[in-house]
Batch of 3 targets.
Target 1
Amino acid sequence: MKGKAHRYGDHVNTDQIIPGQYTKTLDVDELAAHVLEFLDPDFRTRMKSGDFVVAGENFGCGSSREQAPLALKAAGVAGIVAGSFARIFFRNAINIGLPVLEIGSHDIADKNDLEIDLESGTVTDLTAEQTYQAVEMPRVMKEILHEGGLTAYLKNHGDYDL
Amino acid sequence: MSQTLTEKIISRHLGKSVQPGELVIVPVDAVMASDATAPYAIKAFQEMGTRRLWHPEKVILVIDHAAPAPNPRIGNLHALMRKFAKEMGCRLYDVGAGICHQVMVENEHVRPGDIVIGADSHSCTYGAVAAFGTGMGSTDVAALMSTGKTWIKVPPTIKVEITGNLSTDTSAKDLILFLVGQLGTNGANYQAIEYTGEAIKGFSLASRMTLASMSVEMGAKSGIVDPAGLTLPYPFEPMKADPDAHYHKVYRFDVSELSSQISLPHSPDQAVSLEEAAGTSIDVAFIGTCTNGRLEDLQAAAQILEGHHIAPHVRMIIAPASREVFNQALQQGTVEILSQAGATFITPGCGPCVGTHLGVPGDREVVISTANRNFKGRMGNPNSSIYLASPAAVAASALRGVISAPPDGSPSLQNETQEQP
Ligand code: SF4
């Protein structure tokens, strides 16, 4: 996967990703319309489908709303790269089939071109010519992501299968 | 092997001893979703192809986040929940019953030693009754509704030992704001917290809920309050951590000198002594939420406001944590005192906490709130500011119209009531 980086700082919280008042809908396009609205009002107009959101530490802290990764995915974001993630966000993203890569401290700048290889878990900053290795996920998460999310996983397996 | 309380609870559910870092599939005792998360959970549940709930009486749905419905779209989501609950035979707490976490504890859907998962980040509140409670998203909860199981990585435990005695004008809220300030918003990421120590032994169930609820504000997976001193309306066996259990980290704080705390905009970990913000003019004073909407919180406010009236430019909004709390406050005359003082009572539930309705602040307005989060835009307007403080401080601020510490010698909250939370 190749795309541009949209760089944000540390502690991007779920109220910034999708404000609470917009979460009460089953229409994911409507979620997408408000994604990152309080943090970066122009994000929707600047980003292209297949781009990546890149952040510092503790991305997705705050609420358990699955609407946060859903909004990003529905907007066309292909994956999130961050120094670290808040626990529930990370899990939710995998469950809905949105790739998340935890790479520790990094220098990826805004607008840099990135290439991500999910199989090997590498993130390459093509602009700065630097490669980062993502922290390995637990096996169950890999399998869930591989099958496109937890709904598909359970539909296929009927139960957790470790 | 010696274990922390968290490890013990998980081990008991598996019938084998677990260690931090281990990935396990655990059976749970109950699963909860609110109107903010249940619609997606129902959708995922249906897509998973399961036709029956794992255990209808252990699946609890609560309509609290936007209740009563402020618009037709939310009205339809509520209707979807009611229909699902009826078809599946699960328990649904409808408009006005209260905040999901309050309802779970009050109605004994969570008991000491249980593992309970909620589709809400503040499910760590169940640590107040020494249960392992943690928040997950809608799809994880859908999987739980279908299988009764989930996967977790056994968290390393952080011990937070609180010694000394809180002074009479501080409460569990001042303590937890202080702790969030000390550890930071990711200070306990992926970890379990266990609160213990002399200072919290005398805490009421309500104060324990205040403490446990904000564990997630430090990124914690769970936050269990040592059950020593806990009283519940039913008998239970108080589990204990082994004395030589291994903790990932140990923090010790003496709180004898702790002053009233306040978290400055826009993060709960911006906690400072309230004096630093004193004098800031406020527009809204809000008392409520799963952190501070219980009887003792309303009583603390009433003690300050009795016989007085709030400042003319302030709107004071009170959302009792549950109908039970509201009824008790009614019976005791607490509602009357607060209403006479100029406060407005709204439906028991989340109220304006999450920006959906019932009190969205205007641009440049300043809110002092008993909630747990003050992220920019949390209450629905990114151009407003939210300060977090104790119920007593919110009441004192409403009275004067500016951020104010509770008057000296206002009664200590933590030993106040032994009634329901
Ligand atoms: S009161 Fe606020 S923090 Fe608590 S469950 Fe409701 S919205 Fe969440």
Target 2
Amino acid sequence: MIIETDGISKTFRRHDAVRHVSLSVPQSAVYALVGENGAGKTTTLRMLVNILTPDRGSARVLGVDSRRLARREFLRLGYVSENQTIPDRLTVAQYFRYLRSLYPNWDPRLEAELLARFALPADRPLGKLSHGMRMKAMLAGALSFRPELLILDEPLSGLDPLVRDEVMEGLLHQAEHTTILISSHELSEIEGAATHMAFMDRGRVLFQEPVDEVRSRFREITATVGDESDVAGDLPASWFVAERSRNTFRCVETAFVSDAEVLQKLILHVGAVGNVDVRPMSLREIAKSLMRAMRTARPQ
Amino acid sequence: MSGNLRIIAAILRKDLAVLWPLAVIVVLLPVLRSDAVLQNLRNDNLRAGTIGISVLATMLLIVSVMHQDASASLRDDWLTRPIPRWTMVAAKLVFIAAVVCVPAMATDFVSALADGRSAGEAIAPATAVSHATLGAMLAVVVFAAVTSTLLEAVGALVAFAVAAILAQAISGSVLPDGKGILVAGAEWFSFAPALYLPIVIATPVLWLQYGRRRTLLARAIVACACTATMIPVLTPPSAMFGVMRLLTPATDVGRTAGAALAPGCFPRIATETESGDITDEARRLWNSDERASAGPRAIAFSTTSAPTGVPRGWKAMIGFAQAFFVDASGGVLYRLQGASAVFGRPDGVDASRSATHFWLAPRNAYEDAARRSARLRLKYFVSLLEPVASTEIGVNGRRQYVSRFGYCSTGIDASSDTVSIDCFVRGRRPALVTARWSEGADARETMTRPDYTPAALPMLSAPYRLTLSRFRDSTAARVTLTAYEARAHVERSVDVRGLLGGPSCSASLTSSNTYGDQP
């Protein structure tokens, strides 16, 4: 594992921002850390890159305790965050000249390619770039030394769809052999690339597994139900965001095995059902439904 | 170039690219505040403004360069770049040295050369980074290290300044025997924490902040240090003097020295005219707050004391004097107000022959004390100084090096008919330096302010200047300089029967020059 955490926790003034988080990110994975704003994603990533120190637990990144990350590891690790502060008064060219002198493994050709691909104006101060252009500049600055591990904290937040696609394309094109850990509350942009996914809520990781497994066990169920059917009773623990409107019953099955099993569960818990639609879900839909479920379950 | 040097160079280039306008100003400021320029500024406000702007710009530059790569931040780009944290600290310190210290040193050096000093002498003040400068710069570095924005740093500095002003304001009222900061010669005690604590805490704070990223702990240390710098302000003079005594080995002279008062009723100081206006003398001696707290028809008088048991040639310097009305059992009924407005402390400092102090008490405090048959207690905090070196220098404008005194020269100001003696000694100067004419009948003597900084605690490498006036017809061509060192700091009390110099002295005879008859 290129990243392995063991029950890391962080508390800010009695607020548990991260609670006993254990993550395992395999080499070469594109690992999506998903959760609502405030779920603890940023704090977790900051602990991984030693910006914050865990109060409890430990993390190993690139085989090193995260608290011991030093120059040698940062030569192999890129980090981009939407909140990152970069020297605004430097021009793009000055910023890259500065970064170049920090990395013996800097690839000037890749830098030139990325600058051209992202159409970054060399003579414009970083502070005068749009948010999207800044993110592109930071991404280029994190890719040009060909890092083994790239940690991205909401890199696409606030970008318009066109720029988002450009950034993702650039990222995936250049980072073929790079392990990517990306946090997001919006998964559509990494839908096709993510190989693993972890879902965080209120500082905890609720699950983490390969994306294929997530996709295979999540289904959206829509069924036509009769007037006499009752959905108020106990429902299976694997169902959530269950709702009925008129003659339609909807829920998300999180432990899908087969259509037949779904039908059996529906008959058992909802009563007689008519048409049943069991539909695979996209990662974005899965994430959205999980967030809705967590929000509903949260005490008001 | 090695890896770390390459990184330092890259950080310096980046910081300079961002901060060059401010850096240019700071590089040029030492020229503006050099003696050559300041002496031409006849407007005091302009002079003060030049120095103020220079200090502010330097502070702003130090804070800005530290915040370019803030360590207390959670967002700064450099935190996840391959930059060893101590390399970052080194880069910042190199920048400060190159932009702030080196230009200042170069200006001092050139300025000294332009004053006609030799290169050997000019290099001394140029390279003598004083503890005050170093302390002040490190204080700003430390404040900047534990903050991440200019607003935070300014907020922290303002909070500290407000706390210091409050401490200063309340110290006079809460201390049982007044403000300790007024003890003559003990300025080192008052300013040592502010000068040395930044030097002492800089390394641990930078280590915690950059090495361990323990921002809260680093901030706690800075807060504790800020609090500690206020301790002297809240230290009563007696305790301050006690510290000086502890630091000075006891000598026989410390045990035998005493103080005696001039006999007779004390000379009266008129505080009001017959029409009820404040007299000029009272105005000169006490400020309006002090006069107001004494109220109308206040009692004011002077006391003159002379040292006893002090070896010939030594100096007895009064650091602080206090006067109390005390009851029969010695309990303090009232502390009289000394004349600090004129002298900066209750009286002139040199008591080698005699010293006069001026006291003010409210009429009701006096009457209450008189009813209780109280007596007056005078308390003197005296430092005894032994002459340790003496030398003669000619009034010829030539600069020369004299052991213990440093580089000294004399210059004649024909318009005021005075001779100024300018000296510079690297590190600690003697506790006291006096100057007098070597020949002729003119026995007048001038002296520096006393400075009892312990030898182990060199404070400031600062020049000192003595001005000696001469008679118009004087042909004296040589000045004798004498250096003294403190050998004992003693506290002596003198109890006077009655409140105003004797049992027969009374405040009822207000039209007289004294409070009663002379013996």
Target 3
Amino acid sequence: MVTSRLSKLYSWVDDRFKITPLIEFSRHKRVPVHKHSIWYYMGGVALFLFIIQVGTGILLLLYYQPGIDSGYESVRFIMTEVNFGWLIRSIHSWSANVFVFIVFIHMFSTFFTGAFRKPRELTWISGFILLALAMGFGFSGYLLPWNELAFFATKVGTDIAGAVPFIGDAIKIVLRGGEDVTGATLSRFYAFHVALLPAIFTIALSLHLLFIQRQGMHEPEFFKNLPENKKKVIPFFPNFILRDALLWLIVLNILLYLAVFFPWELGVKADPFEPAPEGIRPEWYFMFMFQSLKLLPSHVFFIEGEVFGVLFFTVVAFAWLLVPLWEIKSKSDKNKARPMTILGLVVIAYILIMTIWGYVV
Amino acid sequence: MNVKRRKFINILLGGGLLGWLGSVIYPIISFLNPPKVAEANVASIKAGLEEEFPINSSKILKFGRKPVILIRTNTGNFLAFEATCTHLDCIVQYRTDTKQIWCACHNGVYDLRGRNISGPPPRPLDEFTVNIVSSEIIVSRATEVS
């Protein structure tokens, strides 16, 4: 009875939108199975976390009120008065952090397995844009509770943008909505966080997913060189999707554990006329840049230290974005490590050392 | 003849499109740029009574929209500097243990003449003038007094 109704519904939809070829496409799509297959799941996990962000974000929107007094007070209200408000806010904060972490893992696994190579250059570039947007989400969302740490992190972050030669001042003023970090900045960050960034992110994410679906999963060199009968594969639908779903469930459990046992704190309300407190620091994913700026002297050669730092990170980010275009190809000697692998390891080591240093010292 | 006419139409349409784009983008860019809010032209502020201010302590004052740090040194002298760190805009504080001005954000240190002596700050802090008039502390912009 139910089955016949469902099949009727299916043929009604199929008649109008021709969905059978799409289902056939995903059924025939194959996902390689090999020793590095685990990395295929990272993108899916990131997508899941993004969906959680959208869901919890919409819930928080129902109570949050931007403003230098109402911002802090409304988050406190959410955490103390609203039913399960503490849980929703805590999940939103934890999920944001885990999301950025997984996106970093996803990016580096793509880098080390060489999945950015032809024909996937645009998938890499759209992925990098998504990472930048994710960090933008983090930076703008950090300020919304208007607490002391976020206030000074925003002052520093927007001032760094101001160090960009020629256009820096204009960028800083547009970001802050004026000369200083004030209620106007909070309004803007709110608009970026809940409207502008989600709109751009959705477009970039749609393209990223479209590219992946169109081109299929990347096969590493060693897998490509196997004879056809030795290549182990599983269907994308339902096998891969079901495994993905299981992992999503595990991630959801981890998130709930973190949110319940390590609830996200609100901190002290920001006061623009108080000195920056000791131990001021940005979100962990900005820490390596923060620590680098801290270590730079006031002048490097003839330019100011902060300008030098900003230029350095801008150049490195652009180089990273364009990796598929300038990749250093390795020589045929199999015993030697690939130059790009060494480069990736250097980048990871730099990020790790600077991040740990930032927290320890 | 036809080709010329087509070219003419193309230029007309292309120019029209550019003009249209400009007329859409220009107001948006201008809208993003916040209007300048007139800054209250503060020349000096009263910071309280001399005897209420302990030796070896400091206070952040509102000087118009800018924070200013007022310090009373060990010797009882009053000093005032712009409290915004010249590195990345954080608000500095007076360290009673080291007798220096310190920025917690990036570990920038200034001496009690406002000079950047270690860490990343590229410039000294602007100094303000402090006068005591009938035991009331008056902080004013250095340039206007001299």
